[in-house]
Amino acid sequence: MVSTTVHKRLALASDAPDEEILSIANETLRGGGLVVYPTDTLYGIGADPFNERALARLQSAKRRAEQKPILLITHSPDAASEVVESFSTAALVLAGEFWPGPLTLVLPARAGLARAITQDSGTVGLRIPANKTSLLLAELFGKPITSTSANLTGESTPGSVDAIEEMLGDAIDLYLDAGPLPPSRPSTLVDVTVRPPRILREGALTRDQLLSVLPDIR
């Protein structure tokens, strides 16, 4: 059952979030709810990736018909072991250089992850964001949370909670409003399960930045 509170939308400072507000968000996630929260790139939608009902609600909220994997965030490399089987040398190099930051690594997934997360690919997309709210929320939750963009599928992600709430409405249980976020591209997506690693999406982190630490990336 989704945890309910009198709160629907709470304002916070993204770099110094209130502990009580984070606690409410944590309880919402633990109850199978959906939380819109700020990251270092865009607003994301958080859900418990181990809760099948929460994942179904997430897909419905985004009106997501196509079967695409759902990306996750975590607060530390150690916590990544909840969903990641192993880190290759290339993965460790990239994570060491760009985590926390706007880099999502496609890594070997632990067995048993929900199909909505992996889409039977055997892989999982994960990053550690450089944003205090999302880091502390993931730490309080104790395991990775989803970080799909806060929008309807096929639409751009608004930079303000006003616009996101207008788009997603009551499909979201709690909106954490850190004010308008500066314009940003989504995280850069790199598959490190192949050799050499392959850039699947160039986003906030550029190809040249990746090449500077991993010259054989393609």
Bin the helical content.
25-40%
Spell out the helices and strands N to C. EHEEHEHEHEHEEHEEEH
Structural class by secondary-structure content: alpha/beta
Number of helical regions: 7
How much is the radius of gyration in Å? 16 Å
Spatial order of the strands forming the largest sheet: 7-4-6-5-10-11
- Give a count of the beta strands, DSSP E runs of length 2 or more: 11
CATH superfamily: DHBP synthase
Beta content comes to: 15-25%
Instruction: Write down the oligomeric state.
Output: single chain
Q: Please summarize the sheet with the most strands.
A: 6 strands, mixed
CATH architecture: Alpha-Beta Complex
User: Tell me, what's the shape?
Assistant: globular
Number of domains: 1
Reported by name, the CATH topology is: DHBP synthase
Give the averaged pLDDT, no decimals: 94
What does this entry look like structurally?
The model is unreliable at 1-6 (pLDDT under 50). The chain is 27% helix and 18% strand. The chain is globular, with a radius of gyration of 16 Å. The protein has helices at residues 19-30, 52-61, 89-98, 115-118, 132-141, 161-168, 207-211; strands spanning 9-11, 35-38, 43-46, 72-73, 103-108, 123-127, 145-146, 148-149, 174-177, 188-191, 198-201. The protein is of the alpha/beta class. It has one domain: DHBP synthase (Alpha-Beta Complex). It has a 6-stranded mixed sheet with strand order 7-4-6-5-10-11, with helices on both faces. A 5-stranded mixed sheet has the order 1-9-2-3-8, covered by helices on one side. The protein has 7 helices and 11 strands. β2 (35-38) and β3 form a beta hairpin. The N and C termini lie far apart (45 Å).
